[in-house]
Amino acid sequence: MPDTARPGSSRLGIACVWLIGAGLLVIGLNAELHRWTPPPVPPSSAAGAGAAGAGAAVSAGGRGAGTTAQRHATGAPMGRSLPVSVTIPAISVRARIIPLGLDPGGGVAVPSLSTPFLTSWYDRGPAPGQAGPAVLFGHVDSAKVGPAVFYRLGDLRPGDLVYVTRSDRRTAVFKVSAVEMYSEQRFPARKVYGFTPHPTLRLITCGGTYDNGTHLYLDRIIAFAVYEGQKRAPA
Asked: Could you state, in order of their start, the residue ranges of all structural domains in the chain?
């Protein structure tokens, strides 16, 4: 088990999420191989400077990226309000969000595998639209249903939009700046949880290498996004 910081640690401030693997894995049915195509993996071209936080770069070739190479967060930050749903048109996601904090072991809690189409918000961090990094988790797949809510997260590209509707009936809009894959042991906690002066969003699931012996994914796919303002989500 890797040496990682827990919430409140002076090393990282907020948890490095090695324990998300407990919820974001797929358990093979009777140790069988996948019965569906492995989830997509982001290409190196989807990585960008946005993973580090402020002033996220967006590739001019990305969907909806326009012609500029550098995009910054626009619009004033929003107040705190519980996120209730997330819509990602580029990968056909429309899902409910539930607030979760820490599990009994001190790691970041994620939805049960019995609810593979729910996403969760780390409620000890900023809400989507507030200054700082809001973090959403979702399963990649499950033995019972196959592909789950964030199965296609690796298909996101810089320039794609993410809409998070909140309980105050406002929708925070984010633009993807980078999509990257990290091994579980090298999970970039500082990039995910480190403070940003403007609102940012991180979407996290499992992916990459699947270990048939342990029935675990060994990697994490992370989409980083910057705040674009408030808009109406697509119908």
From this structure: 18-230
